[in-house]
Amino acid sequence: MADKETGGTPDETQLLHLVFGGELEDPSVVRFRHLEELDIVGIFPDYASALKAWRSKAQQTVDNAHMRYFIVHMHRLLDPEDGGHA
Using one digit for the tens of pLDDT, what is the confidence trace for 32-74? Predict the structure, then answer.
């Protein structure tokens, strides 16, 4: 049975991932040109769905060499001493 709050089964551990992007000042350095214009794509319950969203956004902006999207492993930040595993 799926859990409505977590999007998975009650025993399933969530490994949250954030997908976001924006225009960089210089393509060789991760420094955003306009922080207020960052594109927060969303938070996803697993890496596979985050990767799918990242690929979609990256493909949409392929013609802009300064535009970059990233996947942040939020689960690692939530419990850094445990290596990100609950």
Answer: 999 999 999 999 999 999 999 999 999 999 999 999 999 999 9
Rounded distance between C-alpha atoms, residue 35 and residue 31, angstroms: 9
Which CATH number do you get for residue 58? 3.30.70.2400
Query: How many angstroms separate the Cα of 11 from the Cα of each of 3, 53, 78?
Result: 9, 25, 18
Q: Which of 8, 30, 6, 29 is closest to 20 using CA atoms?
A: 30
Contact 42, 4 (CB under 8 A): no
Instruction: Give, in degrees to the nearest 5, the angle at Cα 17 between 12 and 22.
Output: 165
Which range marks the domain in which residue 41 is found?
17-82
CA 10 to chain centroid: 23
